Amino acid sequence: MRDGFDLKRFICIYGKKIVPAVILWIFAGAAVFFLTDICRMLLFHSDTTFRSDVMYHIIFDTEEAEETKLYYNDYTWNDVLDSDMIAGVAAQKLSLSKEEVAASTHIPTMSDIRLIHVYADADNPEGAEKIQRAIGEALAAFGTDTDGFVSIEKWDEKAVEQVKADPYYSRWCICGAAVGFIFGVLFILWKYSCDDGIYLEDDTERLAGIMTAGVVFSDKTVSSGMKDNVESVVKEKKTALCITASDKDGKTKIKADELIGEIVADIEKTDINNSDAVIIAIPYGMSSAAVRREIKDLKLQGKEVAAAIIYSADKITYKTYYLTI
Fold first, then answer.
1. Residues 106, 119: contact at Cβ < 8 Å?
2. Spatial distance between the Cα atoms of 124 and 138, rounded to a whole number of angstroms
3. C-alpha distance from residue 229 to each of 220, 241, 279, 281, 321 (Å)
4. 113, 150, 264, 318: which is deepest, by most CB within 10 A?
């Protein structure tokens, strides 16, 4: 886990990974939410529902019209519809419970206080018509017997239709994409915070505690001043090169030999067992914990780790961070 957050370092190292990773998370989030909405439709809206839609006309008593309209309005009619006066009366006609009738009927938003739509839902057209007919009779009786009303009459009736719940695929996909974007960013930040790899010259000193003599890039070019730094170490002490590898079969070491080549030819002539000091070659991105273990093993052998060389490095990352090669 890194102690601090270097934004420039983060962008240089993870810049190429951010966009693909976030896009992947966005698509994953959208896909998950899309499938969730499909499951919602299958689980909660798979039953066939038929709806009877009737509009009723309310005639108010002119003497009490204003007071009646204040009480019987867009907010209270559904409560009235579910009451004993409407649903209770209709239930007696249908041999159903008041709760069953109330669950099957509702009034949508009213645009005119004098006109109310009543929806009656059932699993077959005949059932929807029966519930609507019973509600109509109950409303008619309610309009005649209740103060403030003259009558409640059927105004318009539509044919019974099958009701299909509307899927919200696009909305769910957008929400999923937004959630995926957030998790994608958090995932990249978490990966960066857990990454203890050595990528830059500053990393060897900060994470492994040794200075960097230079960097060998994948195209076999080197960072400025590397040859001079290596020569200064070799002149002072009998120095050998220790190549570390991030793999177990040694392919990285073979690649290191090819990359480093003539640059450290003088060091390679010295056997590590006969040396006083060691320059350790670290593959680009290798875990600093593994590097510290290598350094510890060398010190146990009585070898001084004089400097480090990072090989197979990404030139674009290096140049972007240091603004020079």
1. yes
2. 22
3. 17, 14, 11, 14, 21
4. 264
State the DSSP string of 28-49: HHHHHHHHHHHHHHHHHS-S-E
What are the structure tokens assigned to 11, written together? 């962008």
Residue 166 neighbours by CB distance under 10 Å: 8
State how far the Cα of 102 lies from the Cα of 266, in Å rounded to an integer: 93
CA dist 196 and 206 (Å) reads 11
C-alpha count within 13 angstroms, C-beta hemisphere, residue 292: 11
In one-letter notation, the amino acid at residue 171 is R
Find the helix packing angle between 7-44 and 169-194, rounded to 10°.
150
- First CA to last CA across the chain, in angstroms? 28
- β 105-106/149-157 pair status: unpaired
CATH no. for 49-163:
3.30.70.3250
C-alpha 30/C-alpha 24 separation (Å) is 10
- pLDDT tens by residue, 185-230: 999 999 998 889 999 999 998 888 899 998 988 888 888 888 888 8
pLDDT in tens, 90-146: 999 998 999 999 999 999 988 888 899 999 999 899 999 999 999 999 999 999 999
**Domain range summary for the chain, segments of one domain joined by +:** 7-44+167-194, 49-163, 201-322
Provide the β-strand partners of residue 121.
51
Distances (CA, A) of 321 to 6, 82, 194, 199: 11, 70, 20, 11
Residues 6+ apart with CB under 8 A from 291: 198, 204, 207, 208, 244, 280, 282, 308
Tokens read off for 245:
């590898």
Look at residues 128, 145, 135 and name the one whose alpha carbon lies nearest to residue 89.
135
Distance CA 160, CA 109 (A): 20
SS3 content of the chain, % helix, strand, coil (to 5): 55, 20, 25
For the entire predicted model, the pTM comes to 0.61
